[in-house]
Structures are given as C-alpha cells and as structure tokens.
Design brief:
Length: 197
Amino acid sequence: DTDAKYVLFVTKNGLVKKTTLEEYVKTKKKTGIAAITLKEGDSLAAVSLIKDEPIVLVSADGMVINFNSSEITATSRATSGVKGIALKDGDSVIAALPVRHKADDLAVFSETGLGKKMKLAEFISQKRGGKGLIGYKGTSATGPLVGAALVADDDTILFVGDKNSICTNATEIPLLSRTSIGNQMIKTDKLMSVSKI
C-alpha cells in the first residue's frame, strides 16, 4: 500500500539502481525473483521505495552526497546499477536516505556511539557519481560511521549497541558542523545499528 513508483537499491560500493515497483509486485512466483545483479565483492547497503525525491548517500568515512533520484534511469530487475557516489578505497556506503521533508536534519552516528545533526541545506545538490562533501571526520578513536537518518524534532531514535540499547528524542542530538565528531549518544563498545522509530 504505497504511492511509490520505484524500488531504489544502493550497494556498499556506491552503485544505485532504480526499478519500477510493478516489476516486483506483478510476479506470481512463490520462490522469490532476482531483484538486482551484484558485482563481485559488492553487497546491498539499502533498499527504499521512492517516487522522484532527492537521495542522500552517506559513507563510513563520512562522505555525503545529495542528488536527485530522477538522474537515475529506471532499469530492469537483472541489472547492477550506475555510480551514485565515488568512494575512496576501503570506504563503503552505510545509508541511503530519500529526502521526503526538506526541513529534516541529517544525523550521523559513529561506531563508538558518537552522534550529531547537520542542516541538510549544508549538502548542496550535486550530480550523481561525485565524491560528495565531508559530513564527518572520524579518527581511530571515534571509529567509522555506522548509521545515519533524516530527523525532525519529534522523531525518536533507537540506538542498538553490542551490550545495551537506548531510545532518545532527536532534540537530544546536537546540531554541529560538518567536520565535528559529535557527542556521546550511547556508551557502548560497538554501536551495531541506528533506526528512526
């Protein structure tokens, strides 16, 4: 039950693929169908239902690119996609976020439980396939990014760590600059996932 037109697939290596939703819902197979062709060494990072809204991709090293999903030509199920973000060696996509409310802030969270928000307007719209802009400068002590979300003040965020989990209101996440590391949101040895609830 959705008014979305497409399924957006984003891989860890930065490829994006858009396929019409009806290609998946019209099948009668009970065993499942091929959804995407993954290249060797790649895997899925995110899947979303979209119309033609902008997309924000976030990488583990803190690079952020904002581009319009209309730049992605819709292709069939058995394709692998096109470049969404140009990643440095060793970097990978950790989040793909459709922009449904332009007033939302971009929140990012590191492996050691640090978090911050940034104004989405700081990430100007670019062409698909670029390097993006720095959204986080991590260190060996802070660790890479493991989660990101587009948040409004009335949103609640669930942090799942390796030993404990907490919920917090999005207003508790500090609004900081693109190069800052953020504040401690959860005390944990390793943050496993972050989700908006």
